[in-house]
Write a structure and sequence with these properties.
The chain is built from 23 helices and 8 strands. The chain is of the alpha+beta class and about 450 residues long.
């Protein structure tokens, strides 16, 4: 076999992902808060880049002199009105949030007088988590203070008598028993079920419980109803205050004169420009100086960032405009009119790639007349209904309505729900019904049954 070496030229096309292109893709995917943090970093790193001051012209209020004269005529009456009224202070309108720890500490100082006991009680409360459970052993606390376990157990019982009921428990069973004891509802049977059959209650295995305890199905279900009415996390009400998260919409859609107006919410993103001082340095310095090379690089980076931000804004606007045009019936009439929509539909409409549309909607929210939604909410798969398609969200709503109207003693199985939907010309499979039911946190028929 003869082998030869030769040189040849071949022309090919390749898409090279430059660093700037990669960063532009990341900018498109960033939500407003993350983008603002990135811009602040760039402002600190790039001296050429600066933010424009957010100054708006102040409109001088026009005085209605006729109304002003009428006010002066009655000045003696209004002169001292609200003069000493502290309730009108804006500080009084700030909500006061009490934490679980503060709530328990307040009760401790009312219930316990001995300084040593107060110190130990405070230590116990500091070991109660946000759900209201004590996460420290009595023996460890006793060893920490070098005292007997009996005294620690006594203080724990005092704290367990505080509000909310069930706080300071060391397990779910102790928490439920404390609540029933406080309501004077605890009896031998309830305590036995909580200690031995709690998992069976959760799975609605009332037949097994009734057989084990030699009681009727109705009695077993009544016990289950009582236990399910209790609060498994007594500190939940206090815990929620510290975990409130606010969503700032990236886009706002408003209806004006029968048309939907779209505006990209860029109030959190500072307006950027290039510093005029560094522009003048480029004209003054020698063309080959190091200072000028440095300024040129920074100026190119600043110009690229400003251009990328504008491109990001236009892309998001185009994507949302397309979504609004597809989902206009939903915005006008509600959830039942939400249409099936895919990334491909929007991409073809605005002549962009599907991946670009996917990045544009990632982690972003839109404020509409119907409420606040993530942009991904509008992209749902369709189900055939005769010649039309309806969205999966509409199907979920129909399934929920069917389950709400069912006979509790004979709940509908997923197959029966499927048959009902098929009779309504909604072509759907049983596994799809089961999937949608689970997504709505609705238990299967066996766990919905009432005796």
């Amino acid at each position: 076999m003869k082998m030869n070496f030769d040189l040849s030229m071949r022309q090919t096309q390749k898409l090279v992902m430059t660093q700037q292109l990669q960063m532009a893709i990341k900018l498109l995917q960033m939500p407003s808060l993350e983008l603002n943090e990135y811009i602040q970093e760039q402002l600190e790193d790039n001296p050429v880049l600066e933010s424009l001051p957010d100054e708006k012209p102040i409109d001088e209020p026009k005085i209605d002199w006729k109304e002003y004269i009428k006010t002066i005529e009655n000045y003696d009456y209004y002169e001292n009105y609200h003069e000493n009224d502290e309730s009108l202070s804006p500080i009084n309108f700030i909500p006061s949030v009490t934490t679980l720890r503060e709530h328990l500490m307040f009760q401790l100082h009312l219930a316990v007088r001995n300084n040593e006991d107060v110190q130990i009680g405070e230590y116990i409360i500091d070991n109660i988590d946000g759900s209201g459970y004590l996460r420290a052993d009595a023996s460890d606390i006793a060893k920490h203070f070098n005292i007997k376990n009996e005294k620690i157990e006594g203080l724990i019982k005092i704290i367990q008598g505080f509000d909310p009921v069930g706080v300071g428990a060391r397990s779910i069973t102790e928490c439920l028993i404390l609540q029933l004891r406080e309501m004077n509802m605890l009896d031998y049977l309830l305590e036995k079920v909580i200690n031995n059959y709690l998992e069976d209650i959760g799975n609605n295995r009332y037949n097994f419980i009734a057989k084990e305890l030699s009681i009727t199905l109705k009695e077993a279900q009544k016990i289950g109803d009582i236990i399910k009415s209790l609060e498994p996390k007594p500190g939940r009400g206090f815990e929620s205050f510290g975990h409130i998260r606010y969503i700032i919409p990236d886009v706002v859609v408003e209806k004006m004169d029968g048309k939907y107006m779209i505006s990209v919410n860029d109030r959190m993103i500072p307006a950027l420009t290039i510093n005029s001082y560094y522009k003048s340095i480029l004209l003054m310095e020698d063309n080959e100086s190091k200072a000028q090379d440095f300024i040129k690089k920074k100026m190119d980076a600043a110009a690229w960032l400003i251009k990328s931000l504008e491109q990001r804004k236009n892309t998001i606007y185009n994507v949302v405009s397309s979504i609004v045009s597809f989902q206009k019936d939903f915005l006008d009439n509600g959830l039942n009119y939400l249409k099936p929509l895919t990334l491909k539909d929007v991409a073809e409409d605005i002549k962009m790639h599907e991946s670009t549309v996917s990045r544009a909607i990632s982690g972003k929210y839109v404020q509409t007349p119907r409420g606040l939604y993530g942009l991904k909410f509008f992209f749902t798969r369709g189900i055939d209904v005769g010649e039309d398609n309806i969205s999966s969200e509409t199907i979920k709503k129909v399934i929920k309505q069917i389950i709400e109207k069912e006979n509790e003693r004979r709940p509908l199985s997923d197959q029966k729900i499927t048959d009902i939907l098929n009779n309504q010309r909604i072509n759907i499979k049983r596994r799809t019904v089961a999937k949608y039911r689970e997504e709505m946190n609705i238990p299967p028929a066996g766990k919905r049954k009432r005796f």
